[in-house]
Amino acid sequence: MSPSLVLIQLLSGLAHAMVLFLIASGLSLIFGVTRIVNFAHGSFYMLAAYLTYTLAATLPLGAAAFYVAVLLAAASVGLTGLGVEVTLLRRVYRAPELYQLLLTFALVLVVADLVKLCWGSENLTGPAAPGLAGSVAIAGQLFPTYDLALIALGPLVAAGLWWLFYRTRWGVVIRAATQDREMVAVLGVDQARLFTSVFALGSFLAGLGGALQVPRQALTNVMDASIITEAFVVVVVGGMGSLPGALLAAVLIGVIDAFGVLVLPRASLVMTFVVMAVVLIVRPWGLLGGPPAPQRTAAAAVVTAGAVRLPRRWVAAVLAVLIAAPPLLPTFHVWVLVEILAFALFAASLQLLMGTGGMVSFGHAATFGLGAYGAALLVTWTKAPMLLAFAAAPLAAAAGAALYGYFCVRLSSIYFAMLTLAFAQIAFAIVHQWYDVTGGDNGLLGIWPAAWLAGPLAYYYLALAACGGGVALLARIGRAPFGLTLRAARDHARRAETVGINIRLHQWLAFVVAGFFGGLAGGAFVFLKGSVFPNLLAVPMSVEPLVMVLLGGVQAPAGAAVGAAIYKLLDTVATKYTEYWQLVLGAVLILLVLVFPRGVLGVLGDRRA
Amino acid sequence: MKSHRVLGTLATVLLLAAPVAPVAAQAPIKIGEINSFSGIGAPFTGPYRQAVEMAVEEVNAKGGVLGRKLEVVFRDDKGQPAEAQKHAQELVASEKVALISGTFLSNVGLAVSDWAKQNRVLFVAAEPLTEALTWAKGHDHVFRVRPNTYEQGRMLAEKAAKLTSAKWATIGPNYEYGKRAWETFRDRLKELRPETQIVGEHWPTLGKIEPSQFVTAILAQSPDALYVSLFGSDWIAFVREADKRGLFKKMFVVGILLGEPEYIDPLKLEAPEGMLVTGYPWYDLQLPAHKEFVAKFMKRTDKNPVLGSLVGYITYLSIAEAIRKAGSTDTDKLVAAFRGLKVETPIGSITFRASDGQSTMGAWVGTTKLDAKRGVGVLINYEYVPGDRVLPSDDEVKKMRIGN
């Protein structure tokens, strides 16, 4: 590598890093103060890009139009953020923290379809930045002026934010709230106003990042999804809530990406996640983050009371319907039921982790995918009989979970979540890249059940036995001493340790058990579909069970199953009747969160109590 | 465009609300159309759908087929194979469609195809490009309209071989499509010019390219020529960055699909000139049937057709023709009808080969140039290469399909 190449590649990496920093700093700020895992951050980024596109073309300001458009777009997205916080998020602050995540996920769906409605789904090419459209010669190579401007802008924004945080009263309050929110509240700071202002500023920064991408990238309906994961990675690597951390991480990731392209071109898919995994294993709270303030209430704050126990009559009734009804149903409904069963078990296995164990995983797709691939690989390469492959699915997933769970359980809260995501992404990259064995993105085909199980009813009863049995076992595990121990560790780690509980060991075991059942769900799914593709391990597959668990209620596996049924039915019906299924699904989810702020079963359970 | 959407939605609502009128003496023949109307394929499927609707209306205006009207039931696969397969189940079990058609992404096409094989349902793939669909994973129940990666890669290689470039690099999405598009091109090029040297391969993540890094890396390897299989937003971002760095002045660029309106139109006047590409010069084709197709499409949509529109139109003409030939909607008869089916299309007649179900639809290979008047890049000095000129022989196909 010649020195001039190194220099140019460094500059390329820095330009990318600065956009990342803008977006990540907003995300970090919002999480630091409000603890909201804001999936909609990427949507705000996308919205601002589209607004800039339209404003720049319509404002009658000549060359200045683009720059005015950037500011206007970022400001309107900031205002949108403010509106969302006041009208929606504020309503669920009393619910367990994670319900805000569900709400922001619903917003992602709604914004995606609104953008599609307003701007269409074709790719759009925005204007170049007037005055910065050319390039300058650096070390014998041309380099875009606009990228140089971005490299200059990044530190300017960072300095502005620094001034805001370290030289104004508002900034002092924000820093205090990031460290210890309860203490700030005790001191009489109006939390509602603080949260609103933080959300508006964070959204503004996302908007600014999106608006500034217009001259560099194409506008697409999926640009929200492509940025949000990377933004979370930057935030977590830097340390949640740390502004200098976000800057450092953005530069680190931008530059490593840039040089990774030169050194390991085939690893581009996974580079950032490997970096994140390494950083988190070495520094459990990110590069510049610190351990969170000890919480005074139940640590996870996910579950308020003990596990909900459903009345036996209800369970018996549901079971009777599940056994008796399918022969009377049209074929397709039976297939939908099988899919729901698989997802019910998948979500219930996550419930053990996040509900009973208080460990929220963003990478649960890995267990599903490992199970599915485990079975599919056995069938493809050893011609294993179907039932043997089916039985191998949970074992493969449990083995995988044991391996990476060992590292994950050393971490807590969002760092735990992001490390699980990192491992899921690494697993995704492996099945995606290992063409000779896994078929890469063309997947593995022809993974059908044995002939006597291939009919809808036969396969349904197999799935019912496997998945229904799995959910029942998970419920039993949650009530057993093992589940109670997990809850003790979740609610008060220090006391649990004092009475001699080996917390990490129990959490690790929970991870393996959740992996086992997640893998069983994957096995049921693969023979339903007859094929397996890497997207079973991708981010959306990790988000879905999370949404299901929250929707149904985190208190019990039954809640997860109910959430899976509601979500899958909604999705199936909406997709059938409208092209704008995301809008419908998102709107219904928002309503459900507002009506059932602790999940359907959670709220019903509370009423009964 | 927006008003059309509103009207469309309104019409749909009215249609759904209206009681089922006993208009047709016989129930329509239903066809299940699964495609990526949202997700990563969404930018390209809208114009496809419009052409499908146009084709079906035309067939129905002439009295339909077998005295029955055609009716298309659309489903959105969201770009996910599992979702597409679920729709296939629903369309066959609940909607009782005669056959499944559509799909854009290769992996979605493969998933539907495998399901069709297992359930003995006819699948007419419109746009997925992977060769595996008709060869390595081919079977009796699958047919494909669009020329696949192998064909297009070879067409480009044969043209490129006539140029002097010896040192090649490539950039493409980190997907099977990108890899195969490159391998077929490279292998053919090496056959024709053994001195060909490969200096670099670059595989950015699909939909997430950070182009500046790749441009620097390519420039550092200083190839004489670059083969590109990026598309969509990745391609737009790459062009903007590469242009500023003078990449297009330093090397000859060959791009698969990049002359198609889907990919060259969004670039407007930023489209690079002098690239060797496969594309679709709808504005220039003189065949009367094609001129009529363009006029009808533009009148209907206020937009110019893209390659997807042509493929959609041809796909449904072919389906109608096959049903006519079969004289029935019975799957076995339809499959038999599709073998060797000859269809008159706006671009001349094409045949669905009996050996592998691949149609002989070809592609236009030409050079890009800016058209200041229309404000977009166009294809010049192009040649239409029919599929049969580059497709493997029946014997070779047989070898590739062993065990299926």
Question: What this model shows, in words?
Answer:
The complex is a heterodimer of chains A (609) and B (404). With 609 residues, chain A is mainly α. Chain A is 72% helix and 3% strand. Chain A folds into two domains: 14-282, no CATH class; 333-538, no CATH class. In chain A, the strands form three sheets. Chain A has a two-stranded antiparallel sheet with strand order 1-4. In chain A, strands 2-3 form a two-stranded antiparallel ribbon. In chain A, a hairpin with a 2-residue loop joins strand 2 (135-138) and strand 3 (141-144). The longest helix of chain A is centred in the first third of the chain and has 32 residues, at 3-34. Chain A starts with a helix and ends with a helix. In chain A, 59% of the residues are buried. Mean pLDDT of chain A is 91; it is low at 298-302. Chain B has two domains: 28-147 and 286-361, Response regulator (Rossmann fold, 3-Layer(aba) Sandwich), CATH 3.40.50; 150-281 and 363-389, Rossmann fold (3-Layer(aba) Sandwich). In chain B, strands 7-6-8-9-10-13-14 form a seven-stranded mixed sheet, sandwiched between helices. Chain B is globular, with a radius of gyration of 21 Å. The N and C termini of chain B lie far apart (45 Å). Chains A and B meet through helix 1, strand 1, strand 3, strand 4 and helix 9 of A and helix 2, helix 3, helix 4, strand 7 and helix 7 of B.
Number of domains of chain B: 2
Strand content of chain A: under 5%
Total beta-strand segments of chain B: 14
Largest interface: A-B, 75 and 70 residues
What's the N-to-C terminus distance of chain B?
45 Å
CATH superfamily descriptor of the largest domain in chain B: Response regulator
**Order of neighbouring strands in the sheet with most strands of chain B:** 7-6-8-9-10-13-14
Question: What is the percentage of strand-forming residues of chain B?
Answer: 15-25%
Overall shape of chain B: it is globular
- State the major sheet of chain B: 7 strands, mixed
- What would you call the quaternary organization? heterodimer
Number of domains of chain A: 2
Low-confidence stretches of chain A: 298-302
Rg of chain A, nearest Å: 24 Å
**What is CATH's topology name of the largest domain in chain B?**
Rossmann fold
